[in-house]
Amino acid sequence: MRQELAIDWNEPPLRTNEKRPVPRPIVLASHPGNAGAGNRRIAWGSADGHARGAVVATLNAGPSRNAIGTHSGAYSVYRALAVAAGQLAAGHQPDLTNTSPAVRIGPFPQWSKPDAIVSLDPWGHLSTELFADRIAAGVDVRPSIAVTRAHINMPEIADAVRAGRLRPDGTVLDAAGNVRVTKIAIEPVWHLPGVARRFGIAVSDLRRGLFEQTGGMFPELVTRPDLDVFLPPIGGMTVYLFGDPAGLGRPETRIACRIHDECNGSDVFGSDICTCRPYLAHGIEVCIETAQMGGIGVVVYNRKEGRALGEVTKFLVYNARKRQEGGDRADAYFQRTECVAGVQDMRFQELMPDVLHWLGITRIDQLVSMSNMKFAPIVASGIEVVERIAIPDALIPADASVEMDAKKAAGYYTDAVPPPEVLHEAKGRPLDE
After folding, report:
1. Percent of the chain with pLDDT over 70
2. What is residue 33's three-state secondary structure?
């Protein structure tokens, strides 16, 4: 028996002699034969930006399109909504006049090592410079990295000045507590063969998993094996540089670094169930000190809320921890996460060192992190870590002691691992307090 597709147009009845517009055909996927003469394959890892070629992921690029997905990361869905709502022209091409980087970054030797950087486009901030001729010819080439300058001001910086830990110098830090920084926004751009090698899996398995586990969102993952680059709809990252970026890539430059994964509750609103904002603020303080001594401080802020499990999962875990028999305690900390999410963590820190290689970093003198999950891939990628900086005990909120004890027991950098009786002790505040 044949089934016919019933379509509800949600439109008023037709008037006399009125014809309903014929809907545009929907193209579900393209195939290698559709590429056309304008398609230029990306030579990932090339030492020359022109030879590497532009990543063209815009939907109005026609045969010039050579990547899967589209720009703006997680915000690409809002772009689609704006087009559907008639608020944005589908063919809008941005005017990129005067948008070039405020500070020159690179190139560095790591850019020409294909497997050193696989999750961002190292040339993504130089698109308007490298491919000006193609843009002038009408090809919609867009930057995936933007570099600007800014001032930041946090209460913790003012506290450090009052306590005498930081001193205004008029260059990095002024008397009002303003800190001069270089600010860099980076959208994810994945080189699929490189990502597959990073995780030790077949490219075909990676493509299939990404296709199936996103509900078939990107058919070209399986129909276009000739396209190696994918712009996933996930959060990107922001890099804050303290000090003169001209010192990047120089072996004599001291580097202090904090790799920080987003925590909206603590970072923005000061929630005391974790150490995220206190540790971030401490990392910024260390970065300012390093910059004032002629080095460079680096804070990488990744959009990976709740260990990339998401904030809904995170809050469900909070409830489960607080309500479990025996109270909120360290020896059940990770178990409660696994019960809800199925895993403890989905941040995949294997990709995290890419941004450090993009910055030309080969040595970190002070890594402001206790995480073994961050330290291990940094070192495995070839970057030397001289010293690790733990969060001072005085900065750990009382309700966050459960998290800190659990992480120390799981392998975090520490001078003393809590004994079993401490891990079994209920330290977390009850849910109704």
Report:
1. 93
2. helix
Taking the C-alpha atoms of residue 228 and residue 139, their distance in angstroms, rounded to an integer, is 20
Return the axis-axis angle of helices 311-323 and 333-341, rounded to nearest 10°: 130
CB atoms within 10 A of CB 25: 6
- Comparing C-alpha atoms, which of 354, 41, 359 is closest to residue 188? 354
Note if the pTM is more than 0.85.
yes
Residue 309 zone, left/alpha/beta (φ > 0; ψ -120 to 50; rest) = alpha
pLDDT level of residue 9 (50, 70, 90 thresholds): very low
Q: Is 336 a catalytic residue?
A: no
- Residue among 345, 365, 399, 429 flagged as catalytic: 345
Read off the pLDDT band of 3 (50, 70, 90). very low
pLDDT for 179: 98
Q: Could you give the CA distance from residue 269 to residue 288 in angstroms, rounded to a whole number?
A: 23
Q: Which residue has the tokens 């809050």?
A: 315
Phi, psi of 198 (to 5 degrees): -60, -35
Question: For 307-312, which contacts have Cβ atoms below 8 Å and span 24 or more sequence positions?
Answer: 307/261, 307/337, 307/344, 307/345, 307/346, 307/347, 308/261, 308/345, 308/346, 308/347, 308/348, 309/337, 309/341, 309/343, 309/345, 309/346, 311/264, 311/265
CA dihedral 383, 387, 392, 397 (to 10 degrees): 20
Active site residue 24: no
> What pLDDT is recorded for position 6?
45
What pLDDT is recorded for position 335?
93
Among 347, 354, 388, 405, which one carries the catalytic annotation?
A: 347
